[in-house]
Amino acid sequence: MTPQNHDLSRIERRKFIGGLIGAGAYIATPSRLLGARQAAASGDKVNLACVGIGNRAAQIIIELHKTGLCNIVALCDTDMGAPHTQDILKMFPDVPRFQDFRQMFDKMGKHIQAVSVGTPDFSHFPVAMLAMSLGKHVYCEKPMGHSYRQVQLMIEAETKYKVAAQMGNQGHSEANYFQFKAWTDAGIIKNVTKITAYMNSKRRWHGMNVADYLPEQPVPETLDWDCWLATAATHKFNKGYVNGEWRSWYDFGNGALGDWGAHIFDTAHEFLKLGMPTEVDPVLIEGYSPLIFPQATTLAFRFPKRGDLPPVELMWYDGVNNLPPLPNNLGESVVDANIPPPSTGKAENKSRPPGKVIYGEGLTFKGGSHGTTLQILGPKAEDMKSKGPEVPKSPSNHFANFLLACQGKETCRSSFAVAGPLCQAMAIGIIAQRVNAKLTFDPATQSITNHKLANEFLTGPPPRKDWEQFYKL
Fold first, then answer.
1. CA distances from 318 to 161, 295, 324, 353 (A)
2. Which residue segments constitute the domains of the chain, with CATH numbers given?
3. CA 338, 339, 344 angle in degrees (round to 5)?
4. Do 80 and 91 meet the contact criterion of CB atoms below 8 Å apart?
5. Tens digit of pLDDT for each residue in 355-388?
6. C-alpha–C-alpha distance, residues 174 and 170, integer Å
7. Which DSSP string corresponds to 229-277?
8. Fewest CB within 10 angstroms: 8, 90, 264, 361, which?
């Protein structure tokens, strides 16, 4: 896929946005955009609209509200009658409600300064793109988008519309982030050549065996199925696609890698400046399916030399029994009690929690997920305690960091510019799972050079009618 210039100069702005969100739509003129930003920067609470209000999205809303830095001014969900939406509806009984985010912006646009996006992976993109094009700041659950191209457009929109945009990998505002940065700056973590990352929890698709898409079922009366599908390809409704089950399907989710990679090797990707892999090799694919994610996967990501930094091989392991080779002296896993369970809704019994091992020059480090800090393995660990730099404490959690960035007081630690390349690297890995083939990627042309179908997956399927506009914002 080659970079594209999405120039709207030939499309009259008002007509274009009007086609997206209907007659009488709120139009983000420069003066209105400036007004919204000045209001957010004034120190007043940020007026926040929430798209997606159940399951994980409900937790996001509660955490954002707990900061005391925002007013919840609009709630939007494609299934307002679902049981999992009721807690948030009861918590904010007087807040306007919508089933279609386009209508929400139409009716409430001038009252909204920021948006939380807690929808399924595949529908992050249209919500975030419309919000940014209207000058709204965006907090988006990970991964940012569903395809390499979607993520690229979101990176560009963050800069184009000059908004604060934060991806929801909370570890970027916790101890792991500040320790990794301090240790890298001090040369404690240096010349890393190998990383082992693993997530061996049971996932929703484990044990599934499908030969085709699911049969059509009646759409629940409370659900707007067309809006739920958003920019995805047309599918007939089946309950096996909703309420977290979408994670199992390539058409909707990003698998264990997209779900947990952003919590396990995110700081390594940023502070080791990994960028894009030039090769991704599916060393093991167990239970291959072109429709759902494998039962187990081992992927080898090969990142080239970056200036003076040596090449890095990142090995990813998922699947209950696909345990990685680990150092004999690893000891107990690094676990944070605040880490939420996998999306099955409970922490499955397994031999080892999610984590990583980082092999640097002279030192080997073990770590967990999210905000857990690294530990040095071996006899040098005690000696390094007195030599390590002071690690600063986080001035704000991830949710407060975003809202303070909306006010111009902080900078998003997991901005789209930072999180985007991480998500794009994972997207290439997911394509390797989907085609079950070793891929060669050219960062200069943003293309997979050795596999035609895989290269097409970088762009993703054509959007459905009336949803293609989001790729032109």
1. 37, 8, 9, 11
2. 13-170+403-420 (3.40.50.720), 173-393 (3.30.360)
3. 130
4. no
5. 999 999 999 999 999 999 999 999 888 887 777 8
6. 7
7. HTTSPP----GGGSTTGGGGBTTT--HHHHHHHHHHSHHHHHHTT----
8. 90
